[in-house]
Amino acid sequence: MTDTAHPDPAHPDPAHPDPTLPLGGTISMPHGGDIPRLGLGLFRAGSGSGTENAVRWALDLGIRHFDTASMYGNEEELGRAVRASGIPRERVFVTSKLWNDDHGRGPAHRALEESLQRLDLGWIDLYLIHFPVPGLRRESWGVLEEALEEGLVRAIGVSNYMEHHLRELLDYASILPAVNQIELHPFNARTRHGVTDFCRRRGVVVQAYSPLTKAQRLDDPVVGEIARERGRTPAQILIRYGLEKGWVTLPKSSNRERIRENADVVDWSLSEEEMERLDELDEGLAVTWDPTHAP
Ligand SMILES: NC(=O)c1ccc[n+]([C@@H]2O[C@H](COP(=O)([O-])OP(=O)(O)OC[C@H]3O[C@@H](n4cnc5c(N)ncnc54)[C@H](OP(=O)(O)O)[C@@H]3O)[C@@H](O)[C@H]2O)c1
Question: Is 216 in the pocket of ligand 1 (CB under 6 A)?
Fold first, then answer.
């Protein structure tokens, strides 16, 4: 069926140039399929109506990509909100992740099955190994490859993998990871250039998590100055920075106004000079767990 046969029922905004496309556009993934460049992070989005409302508000704005994990405890709420939206399932992109306690053949199979059941959306668009837990991650990757072949998931990837974790994975993987999801923002992008460049050279899509530094650097003077000059907010500058870098970016908010603010990042850009000023802010910051020296 064509897109025009399915006008999007959840997109009331006439300013959106093409309501059949995800806000911000998409990037092609190495084993097929497209991933929307702008997603909504759902860590600590709240149980029950917290997550459901956030997903509904984001869908209304044209956001079609949602990032959850079994560890976040809100897969059921995400699935309910997507089903209730009336948007065709294939138009929404849902990521979930294998938690650290679930590595190894049997546990990984069970964990994936449970995530599929909780989401109740038929399939998972992208399933990631959440952290490079030593020991059983090779076995777990085999389970993800099988799940891809069986069609339970439409893409597989990793998260918090640094260059040495990726090199190890490439030694035994039959299927390349489509995505590596890591913490990225101006305060660590230079430090992490090695891993992002490694991904770029191999066609692995880079996803930026904690793009707003968990709100820890929103008051940075340089970010503030660029925001004032542009008539934008610091959060918008940080999100736009990730899009300019070619990453998929996953800002989290469960506040309706801030979700709207964070979505208003697609019809303008930062100059090269502004990007350089932001690059200069690198301080090797990790607001989440830092996997750099993890075995
Ligand atoms: N793979 C992993 O290991 C991993 C690790 C961390 C995160 N993630 C993913 O990445 C997503 C985003 O990362 P994150 O949740 O760590 O942090 P983040 O997106 O960098 O920051 C979220 C924080 O910023 C606040 N915020 C959002 N928009 C704002 C705005 N416009 N102005 C001021 N404050 C704003 C949010 O509060 P309100 O909600 O109140 O607006 C929240 O406190 C997660 O939700 C998750 O999906 C993955």
Answer: no
Distant-in-sequence, close-in-space partners of 61: CB < 8 Å, separation ≥ 6: 13, 23, 259, 260, 263
Asked if 127 and 156 count as a contact pair (C-beta separation under 8 A), the reply is yes
Interval 193-237: pLDDT, tens? 999 999 999 999 999 999 999 999 999 999 999 999 999 999 999
Q: Which atom of ligand 1 is nearest to the CA of 67?
A: 47
Residues of the chain short of pLDDT 70, as ranges, are: 1-20
Is-contact 54 42, C-beta < 8 A?
A: yes
Query: 3-class SS at 182?
Result: strand
Q: Where are the domains of the chain?
A: 32-279
pLDDT of residue 14: 46
Work out the widest C-alpha separation in the chain, in whole angstroms. 54
**What's the CATH class of domain 32-279?**
alpha beta
- Pocket test of ligand 1: the residue of 210, 254, 264 to mutate, having most ligand atoms within 8 Å of its CB, is 210
- pTM here is 0.94
